[in-house]
Amino acid sequence: MMIEDLLEEKKSDIVERWFDAVIESYPDGTAHFLKNQKDLFANPVGSNIYSGLNALMDCLIKKHDETVIKDFLDPIIRIRAVQTMFSPSQATAFIFDLKKIIRDILKKELKNSETGDKLSSFERKIDDLGLIAFDLFMECREKIFELKANQEKTKVYRAFERAGLIVEIQED
């Protein structure tokens, strides 16, 4: 049996555990809310994370290209990038949690060495996903810092302008 078929068969359990692993990275009160509030409008963060993980699992199983993967990964990473409680490694660690989750769920099947070899190949896809996630995270953080720097420049300019320290240069 192909590893993709095994993963497809156990996908809902894998995604549930993966979602739990992501949620556990948040403080207790936040984690409880994200996990238990099922309403899309009351809990858009939890909903986006869950649907993104589900789609990413499909992408890994069905071998989608990097553009499609980025489309599903981007919302999750954006959420984690604006949350200053996460370092870059903490924000992207959930990707690598997927390896352990899959190994735990496929424990019985992995006794067959052929399945183990196929899983090692699949885990390389997870590593690639982690690298994509890290790149997306850094792009988001760079954009945030750029926006903050521009906001500060604007504040200083306006303060100088109000103080009469900025004069328009007249053209002849």
Which term fits the overall shape?
elongated
**Count of separate DSSP helical elements:** 7
Low-confidence sequence ranges = none
Multimerization state: single chain
What would you note in describing this structure?
With 172 residues, the protein is an all-alpha fold. It has one domain (3-140). Helix content is 77%, strand content 0%.
Please give a quick description of this structure:
The protein is an all-alpha fold. The protein has helices at about 5-10, 10-25, 30-35, 45-60, 65-80, 90-105, 115-160.
Give the tags.
elongated; 172 residues; single chain; mainly alpha
Question: What secondary-structure arrangement, pairings included, does this model have?
Answer:
Blueprint: H1 3-9, H2 11-23, H3 28-36, H4 44-62, H5 66-82, H6 88-105, H7 113-162
Helix pairs in contact: 2-4, 2-6, 4-5, 5-7, 6-7
